[in-house]
Each structure stands twice: as C-alpha cells, then as structure tokens.
C-alpha cells in the first residue's frame, strides 16, 4: 500500500495523506480563514514553497516512508516548471518541483515530487473515485476559468479551455487575450464583461424566464462547450467526459448533448458520453497523489 501526499494550490493550499487512493487523516487547509484567501498571491516563491512543505510535513504526520508527492497547480506546467499561472503570477518560471523536492530532502523526506495541472488532478481524482483508473477520461472544470483535464496523464499542453470555438471577430473576452476562445464565452470574467449589468447567475435565471438576449447567450454557452468537446472527440477519440466545478449547474445536459450530436457525425466517434459529477477538494487531493504515484511508476 503506497502512502503518498497530494497537494492542490488555489486560493488555499489543500493537503492530505493518501493511502491506497483514499484520504487518511482528513484534509489540511492553509490559510484556514476565508478572509485570508488572497494571502497566497502575496507570498514570494520561496515563502510559498516553505508553506507547501510545512503542509506536506504536517500531512505526513511523522511518516518518512512517503512514496510520492503530487502538487497540482492552476496553470501550465511542464517538466516540473510552472510556465504560466495567471492566478499565482509569482510562480511563472519557478522550478517548483525541484524547490519542493530539495526542501523535503533537507527534512528527511526523500521522495519523487510530481507537478501537475490542476484539471488533470481533478480527472485523476474522479477516475479513482468512480473506479475508472483503467480507462481514459476527460473533464471540463467550469469555474472562474475553464479547465480541461485528462486521465491518464499524457505529455502535451492540453489548454482545452482556450480551444477556439468561434470565428466571430467580436469574441475577445478571454483573459489570455486570444480571440474566439471557449473561456472567453464560459469563464466568469468574460461573462461579467459581456453582461456588464448582470451576474452569471442572473443571466441564466433570466434565460429561464424567457429573456431573449440571455437565452441567446445560454445557447452560445452550450454551443461553445459542445464545439470544444467535439474537437476533442475528433482529435483524441470518443470516451467519457465529466463536467464539474462551481458553475456546472448552468449546464443544461440535453441542450449540450443535442449540440454535440450535431457536431460529431462520424459513427465510429459517437461512443462518447457527457456526465455531470460532483468534485471536492478531497477528490482533487486524491487525484494529485494518484497522478504522482503513476508518474513515479508505482
Ligand atoms: Zn484564452
């Protein structure tokens, strides 16, 4: 039974000891107070590494026989380096894997560290939780941004949230600055920019009540996700797509399935499925640990 530590970085650091794909001893959160959520952005890289390692030591609870450590970061990660992290900009370019690894070694935990994209961690956690560790799954996380995760890990960039889903010149709301992107339609910031006078919740409420402008947006929102899903099916084949995240309740599954069906017509590619699932910080932490175990060949 491998004992690993899973870590996720977002507004908080979540950490847990994972034994046999299950969280043991509960989840650790830093900072604990919601009012301090902005705090991580303020920390420079070295201080943040220190905090992450403190959490790992605490989760390990004196156990030095840790098989692997997985750290999920919201951003683009390659070979242990954070190449882009819009919500933790101080990490851009940081060799986070080596920095954490070195500090752990100094304190007696000599274990491989894996850095992964947070949406990939969600995919691995959902695969573990749904007994699908032997199949391929993809996941869309609908939150402030749009994440695209894959399980099992495959080398590549996989910035699926920035899939181009429209050729309309006016679609310029994506935070990355790119035109026609999925996140430029479905992301929180882009919805606020499109409806300056309404929160996303109000837009979907108004669509339900029959407001024409909001109804049109609801259709665009679902068409965009259908388009990105169809592109993924056309590039990587059919399979299971999970939808999750804080905004997943905006999804009208029959509408999404209908648009996707209109976009995927080749019969060998129609064996895909779309399912809404619940995820949690616990699932993400388990996913980070499971990904790290697989990367370490356990
Ligand atoms: Zn973009």
List keywords for this structure.
alpha/beta, Nucleotidyltransferase, domain 5, 2 domains, 5-stranded mixed β-sheet, 4-stranded mixed β-sheet, 10 helices, binds zinc ion
Give a nutshell description of this structure.
The chain contains ten helices and eleven strands. It is α/β, with parallel strands linked by helices and 298 residues long. It has two domains: 3-123 and 281-295, ATPase, nucleotide binding domain (Nucleotidyltransferase, domain 5); 132-276, Nucleotidyltransferase, domain 5.
Commentary on this structure:
Helix content is 38%, strand content 21%. It has ten helices and eleven strands. It has helices at residues 39-42, 45-60, 96-106, 118-129, 183-186, 188-194, 200-208, 212-236, 253-263, 281-295; strands at 3-9, 13-19, 22-30, 68-73, 76-78, 81-84, 113-117, 137-142, 146-151, 240-244, 273-276. The protein has 298 residues and is α/β, with parallel strands linked by helices. The strands form three sheets. Strands 3-2-1-4-7 form a five-stranded mixed beta sheet. Strands 9-8-10-11 form a four-stranded mixed beta sheet, covered by helices on one side. The protein has a two-stranded antiparallel sheet with strand order 5-6. The longest helix has 25 residues, at 212-236. The radius of gyration is 20 Å and the shape is globular. A hairpin with a 2-residue loop joins strand 5 (76-78) and strand 6. The protein has two domains: 3-123 and 281-295, ATPase, nucleotide binding domain (Nucleotidyltransferase, domain 5); 132-276, Nucleotidyltransferase, domain 5 (2-Layer Sandwich), CATH 3.30.420.40. The structure holds zinc ion. Zinc ion binds at residues 162, 174, 176, 178, 181, 183-184.
